[in-house]
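#struct-help
A.M.: can someone run this one for me? Single chain, 668 residues.
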Amino acid sequence: MAEQVKAIVEVLNKDPFSKAFNIISFDNLEPLQLLQVLNDVFTYIDPTNKMDLREETPEDMAHRMLKFLSVLKYSPECSVQEFQAGIITGEKSVVYQTLAWVLPKVEALKTRAYLGRYLVKLEVPEEILQDDEVERNYQEYLELLEEFKTVHKATDQLKSNKYTAADIKRDISQMEQEHGQLVKTIERKKNRIESMANMTELLGAARSLRREQERSNGMVEQRATISAAIQAADAKVQRLMGQLKEMKMASQNMSVDKLMSRLEEEHKSCVYLVEEKLPKEIANKRKACNSLQKVLLEPAMSEDDVEELVDRSSDLQTELNELHQQRMAKSDNADEKLVMFRKQALMISRKKEALAEELKECMNEYNDAETELARKRQEMKSVGAETVMTGTELKKYIADIRQKSTVYKARRAEMADLRAEVGVLARTADILQHQYSDVKQLISQTEKDKGIAGFTDAQDELEKISSQKGAVDEAKGKILEDMSDMSDKLNEMIAEKKAALAPIIKELRPLRAKCSELEQLHAQRKTEYDSLSARLGSNLHVLEQEVKEMRETAQAEESQYHFLMHSKQLLELEQQKVEEELAVYKNPDPAARKQSLREQYNRKILEQDNLGKALRAKQKTVREQHVPNVAQMAMWRDLTSLLTCKTNILSKQQQKELDTGGENILIL
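D.P.: on it. Structure tokens below:
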């Protein structure tokens, strides 16, 4: 374990973490701080894990970390339940094992986490894949995954390739040439636009078009919002109508008495929940909140205080068990019927609480089912289905899907055959094209041998030209006339535009020079800004790390300060008591000295000694008189038995005389 902690601390103290830990400070971290260190490592691997653990519940934190570790393909040494419990409580052994596995291969895990977000396949059930559209989309999804793998491999290869300075200079010069060509093209386009007569009108029309397009986009968004609101309202109406239909169907098969009894049962259950269960839960929650508030308001506790509280808790638990046993003993001596009734009442109350919990769970499940049903209905409505299919309709639908799937597979097989045939035909066309080329070359060679090279090509061209010559001549005549008219008009327009643009061009030349100077100044300032921004960014990261470390140190020092101040106050109180005792003890007045603790304890010790002597003397007297007292008690018991026997005889004698009518005679 020590070697493991040492290796973890060495990695955390290096870049990019720079934690400044030592073995002792790292081992003394609180569970929440230790989990925060683990989360910082996860954040470096994947920035989506960046989070303050104080703002996240332990269950959500454990679920998120387990999901992330599963993406990283980490298998814990213990079971998943034990690992989850260790993450929730911040157990050192679990966190140390995780850090020891993650830190040596951070960079590899960083790449794995990046790829895991895109390469984890979605599992789709086979019955859903029977749908053609779903299967097509799933195939496209798999193709995109393969394309992503290919692109990522190509990107890694490009990153591994290092460009030389000559390549970079050549690229820069090429980009500068392209930039110059683009500038010339832009200037040429500007000149061409400026020569147009209605340029202002066209710019106004373009602005109007842009405003109308923006307005149209806003109306489209507004329409989408209204449509979503209408769909939500329709879904709510459908849900309420479904509830109304269910209530009507339920009321048809139910009499008034049954309905009233059902409502009474629901009313009783609601009354029990509102008047008994919920107030108890609220009281327990408030009690727990008050306890937590008291714990938060108390100062920091040391290990001795914690041990004292644990001992006190064990003593109270022992006392509670003894009281419980005494109560059980008393209850055993009480009336058995009352005990039985109490047990029955306790069992009924427990059953009622269990049924209330079960009712609450059923209500939650019912609400979840209602929400899921509304969502499914909304999804069905979005795909065009208006009603929910019954069991018979669903079986029929599945049979149709299977039939269509069979037809689809047959059509796909036919399509595969047709594609194979198309491939054969394409190959045949290629072969024929090659043969045509060979025949054409043979004809060309034969013509060349006969001295009439190019005769076939020339004949084909002449036939084409002769067939097109008539139409071309007619079109040419019309085009020439149009061109002559257009040329005259263009010459007039060019002359007018030149006269109008001459002063503007004179003003534009110094502005172009100024624009080029400003572009150079902008490029220079941008370079300076980029360098300064990068430098400040690196300095800011270092400062943030230092501030974070200083805050952690300040928190630890503040906690230590409060602990020491509390201990100091306790010691001062003890010292004050000691000084008061010394002052009383050194006082020459005997009456004042009697008030000291020493004198009080001495008096109590003397009183206890005298009491012990008296008790021992009493014990000795009791032991000496024990045998005569036992004999005396035996004699008294015999005398009591004799008197009882005589009383019984006398009673029988009197009863006999009364029966015979004789005289009363006392016989002793």
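A.M.: thanks! The two ends are 98 Å apart (CA to CA).
D.P.: also worth noting: The chain is about 85% helix and 0% strand.
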